[in-house]
Amino acid sequence: MIVIFGVVLLTLLVITAIAIVRTENLFVAVMLLGIASLFIAGNFFLLDAADVALTEAAIGAGISTVLFLSALALTSERERSKSSNKILSFTVVAVAALVLIYATFDKPRFGDPDAPVQTHVAPWYLEKTPEYIDIPNVVTAVLGSYRGYDTLGEVLVVFTAGIGVLFLLGSGAPLGSLPQEKINEGLRHHLIPRVVGRVLIPFILLFGLYVQFHGEYGPGGGFQAGAIIAAAIILFSLLEGEQRALSVLPARVLLGLVAFGPLLYLAVGIAGIVLGGNFLDYSVLSSDPVKGQQLGILLIEAGVGITVTGVLLSVFHAFAARGR
Amino acid sequence: MEILGLYYYWVFAILLMIGLYAVIAKRNLVKKLIGLTLFQSAVFLLYITMGKVDEGTAPIFSVTGSNIFSNPLPQVLILTAIVVGISTTALGLGIVVRLKEEYGTIEEHEIQEIDER
């Protein structure tokens, strides 16, 4: 059964990808990209990667579509020129694809439990997580604790990218100084999206918080929750107009969130040193090492969630403000 | 299962190259970024495919569940990579928007022509 699902999803994915490259209408390409993300998320789910599927669905199909569309609104919706050196590019790409496909015959069998990737550190994580950290979701344990350094790096990359977008685009003129007709009213005058949105947004926010705080027990965590909460607030700004969204969460507060997230993460790391352990060693945060690990993961996941929400919303508002 | 496994790897190769084609052949900068996103997704797919174990489930301990889990490590790497990917894409789109404002176009060769003038 899974084989059939997998083959169908992958085939649809390839067809979508070809359509994305072939279409000259960028609006269509962006919409298809969202659909492709959904197919990829479905594949991740079939491959037992529930956390990753959740992230891909929230980010790829949700946020990335909104960002591409806001960029299209500021640039143009159609490609104006033909491809350059079509035949040469196609040859290069086709040859590379054939080499890659040839290489796949040497790869370990799909799902082989004895493949090199399964036999190094991965079994150790699966074996020791109940003993050292005692949370059911091993992905969260690896992300938050064993590879906390990596995750700190990723959070700082997200932070840097967000600051970079703000530097490039600025945060726009303050809304108060603009004439009334220039302020985007959103879809306030359309009844159906408004009613549906009003019903959906509280539940999306609630689900975001569930994903944030249930990340130790089920699929979820700060990255996914941040994206889901940001998606809910972006939906709110699309429906109610940007001004209302900014009066709920002003740009200054968002900047504060962007800075607070990484600081919280770093503070947990430094608390580890102060209490006599290593940087990002959570065992010392509580008298019981296992409890300390759980507390540390909870705090850094909160830091991750706050950063991701802050950055995605700041970026969205930066693009929206540029259009005025 | 054998065929499905190879099919996953082939789709990775094809998707990767479709993305690369958009990056090198298309002249529209937004289209290039879309190609880059596809390229990136293909890499994600490869990592997650490699982590799959026969009869395995998601690496979450449950009261009733089995003892065979798929590899959590690639999942962690890709989970964070997706979020970093969207941040860098946003940065790229920011640069494209600024280029449009400065040059009035987002077609690569037109920007080059303006620069050479």
Beta-strand segment tally of chain B? 0
Q: Got a strand count of chain A? A: 0
The number of helical elements of chain B comes to 4
CATH fold assignment of chain B: Helix Hairpins
Rough outline of chain A? globular
Low-confidence stretches of chain A: none
Percent in helix of chain B:
over 70%
Highest-level CATH class of chain B:
Mainly Alpha
Could you describe the largest sheet of chain B, including whether it forms a barrel?
none
Residue-averaged pLDDT of chain B, rounded?
A: 90
Taking all Cα atoms into account, the compactness measure Rg of chain A is: 22 Å
Q: Return the structural class of chain A.
A: mainly alpha
Principal-axes geometry of chain B comes out as elongated
Q: Provide the number of structural domains of chain B.
A: 1
Report how far apart the termini of chain A are. 51 Å
Mean pLDDT of chain A: 89
- Structural class based on helices, strands and sheet pairing of chain B: mainly alpha
The structural domain count of chain A equals 2
Characterize this entry briefly.
Chain A is mostly helical and 324 residues long. In chain A, 74% of the residues lie in helices and 0% in strands. The termini of chain A are far apart.
Describe the protein.
The complex is a heterodimer of chains A (324) and B (117). Chain A is mainly alpha-helical. Chain A folds into two domains: 1-107, Four Helix Bundle (Hemerythrin (Met), subunit A) (Up-down Bundle); 119-324, no CATH class. Chain A has 13 helices and no strands. Chain A has helices at residues 2-22, 26-46, 50-74, 86-104, 116-119, 122-132, 138-146, 148-169, 191-213, 222-240, 242-248, 251-274, 289-322. With 117 residues, chain B is mainly alpha-helical. Chain B has one domain (2-57, 66-116): Helix Hairpins (Orthogonal Bundle). Chain B has four helices and no strands. Chain B has helices spanning 2-25, 29-51, 72-103, 108-116. The longest helix of chain B has 32 residues, at 72-103. Chains A and B meet through helix 1, helix 2, helix 3, helix 4 and helix 6 of A and helix 1, helix 2 and helix 3 of B.
